[in-house]
Amino acid sequence: MPSHRRPRRRIRDRRVPFDAPTVDHVADSVRHLESLRSAISDTDPTLFARPVHRSGRPPSLHVNNPEAERFAEDIGVRPESAGEPGRFVWSWGEVITPVTTPEIAAERIRTVLAARNDMPTRRTRPTP
Description:
Layout: H1 23-43, E1 48-52, E2 60-64, E3 72-78, E4 87-89, E5 95-98, H2 102-113
Antiparallel strand pairs: 1-2, 2-3, 3-4, 4-5
């Protein structure tokens, strides 16, 4: 009896969808993220930053604002290329600053994660 099943497709290994980081890149990233962590604590001591190391993934820095718990971000390091220094990047890949300026990156991260006390907590309809 012939089989009416479709042939199985080969499924790529989705656990590592990019090139695995090299040892040199990991060491450089950890060093740059530690300098960013220090700059964040100097810029705004209320922000909490901790390094994150996942197997097979490049290291990142998880930064959150305890005053506004829903505001958190994972910061990574894009390796240097063609003689340009590495860059701090947001979780979606947008560049923050070069790794040579962690103070500016810390200020930008603080701005994004700032709790806004003047924002309304919920929408209200205007009264006629």
